[in-house]
Amino acid sequence: MAGAAVIAMVAGLAGCGSGNSSTSETPAPPPPVNNTQPVIVDAGPIVNGQAVGDEDVLFTMVTICVPGTTTCQTIDHIAVDTGSTGVRILASQLTLPLATSMNASGQPIANCVQFADNTYQWGPVAKADIKIAGEVASSVPIQVVGPSNFTAAPNDCTAGGTPAQTVSDLGSNGILGVGLFRQDCGAACASVTSPPAIYFSCPSTGCVIASVSVTEQLQNPVWMFPQDNNGLLIVLPQIAAGGAASVSGSLIFGIGTQSDNALNGAQAQAVDGFGNFTTTFNGVKYPSSFIDTGSNGLFFLDSTTTGLPDCGSQEMGFYCPTSTINLTAINSGPNPNAPTATISTNIAFAVASAAALFNSSNAAFNDVGGSNPGAFDWGLPFFFGRRVFIGIEAESTPAGPGPYWAY
Amino acid sequence: MKSLLMVLAALFAAALIGFAALGGSEESVISDQVKFQASRRVVPEHGYRVHEISRGDGTLVKEYVSFEGKVFGVSWQGPTLPDLSQLLGSSFAEFQGSLQHKAGRRKAAVVHNSDLVVESTGHTRAFQGRAYLKSLLPDGVTQEVVQ
């Protein structure tokens, strides 16, 4: 085991040293940093003595610091979300004095993120050092969500949605967006002609959509780590039908960089520019499918297509079959190392009555299902009993360049 | 010149009044176009017309209009969500009221009521969705056309 670690590190050094023509002896490699962060699926943060999280939410702890200082704060119950990018901390939970980022016109920069459930988070961008396990990303633009003393969200952000900016409404103290991409938006938001409604300039007269350079956008902190920065691995154990009160696992940084993050036969499937791939179900291809720890169920198609009855009433949008139904689908995508070749993986999954599961006191379920018309949204239940790797865009890994999923 | 001014005045009046789109009149489509600061083209189909409103950021909104001039369906795709309060018009309150907002629940917003159907799916960078009113579908036109 120790030998494997040494080999991985020497390989890493060889890759980094290509620009050095010196023939001097290779210095002894530094000891590997701790790249493993504990994660937990539980009932969520406590508000007024009551846990306010929903089922199947993956949480971790994040330390944020004023850049370059030891003025830090550790915040628990941050939701680990592979479906979005960037660190978002509820202003109500933040005690650090973080300076709001300003644009070239001297105006505050604000960020908006919307979710398909018709909620949004709004707030200024600020830079912070992000510490997770032994890894540190320096001066990372993050979003401070919903400070009461900041300009209200403009209509382009709210878009008829509902704010989820308190611990009770969000079900967490913030979001750790560690998905497939380096930034939440990327080149589109750096466009000066028609950027989408994600970044805003906020003079006192009100916030307007603005272009923001890629480096000033919210960043996936993982690619900013000095090492173990090409991707990540989420490991959660399998759980019993009927669920578990809590489930502990690991968030491991890097792919093939240390002894604990080797692919070990995991098959990589590249995703498209939106992070989507094809799921085939009953012979029909659904090319806008995705994997997302931030979705708290296996959401796929609709009752008409699947024959699974909707729960109706309080749990509308979830499936309530009378007995557990076992299903299979096929996920496929290009081999990142040889894009003309397609890698396909059979996925077996089960759907039980969501209403019955939600009536239990458990927080983690591997068989909660619901509708997502036209595609598969493989939420957190997909991760139980799997080692799931995320290759970050433009990063090189032993399975080829990201963005990809491997499992 | 005078007629152009009148058209512009009509456009701004429509924008200010905020005509509903879904369930509204064909003029409400122009209101949406103004609000989205977008370009528009009309595609004739069998039994209905589609107004395609596109914006430089990649947002595409389609509004499905019967020959009677009623918007019976809307669909959208893009990097962010369009303003659904505008796009769903008088059906927006029903959509919001039907959503089960529970803390931390992260899933598609899907409403299948007796008349109103809304399916809002996707994730950051790639949202899509559609909505229609069954009672307004023209004769011989099925909900599948709203995509």
What features would you describe in this structure?
The complex is a heterodimer of chains A (407) and B (147). Chain A is mainly beta and 407 residues long. Chain A has 2 domains: 29-224, Acid Proteases (Cathepsin D, subunit A, domain 1, Beta Barrel), CATH 2.40.70; 258-406, Beta Barrel (Cathepsin D, subunit A, domain 1), CATH 2.40.70. Chain A has helices spanning 2-16, 155-158, 167-170, 187-190, 303-306, 354-358, and strands at 36-41, 46-47, 50-51, 58-65, 72-81, 85-90, 109-115, 119-132, 135-145, 162-163, 174-178, 199-201, 208-209, 231-236, 247-253, 268-270, 277-281, 284-291, 298-301, 325-335, 338-351, 369-370, 372-378, 386-391, 404-406. In chain A, strands 21-20-17-18-23-19-22 form a 7-stranded mixed β-sheet. A 6-stranded mixed barrel of chain A has the order 4-5-11-6-9-8. Chain A is globular and about 60 Å long. Chain B has 4 helices and 7 strands; from the N terminus they run ααββββααβββ. Chain B has helices at 2-17, 27-36, 84-87, 92-98; strands at residues 39-45, 48-54, 60-66, 71-78, 109-112, 116-123, 126-133. Chain B has a 7-stranded antiparallel β-sheet, with helices on one face. In chain B, a hairpin with a 2-residue loop joins strand 1 and strand 2 (48-54). In chain B, helix 1 (2-17) packs across helix 2 (27-36). The longest helix of chain B has 16 residues, at 2-17. The radius of gyration of chain B is 15 Å and the shape is globular. Residues 1-20 of chain B have low confidence and may be disordered. At the A-B interface, strand 7, helix 2, helix 3 and strand 23 of A face helix 3, helix 4, strand 5, strand 6 and strand 7 of B.
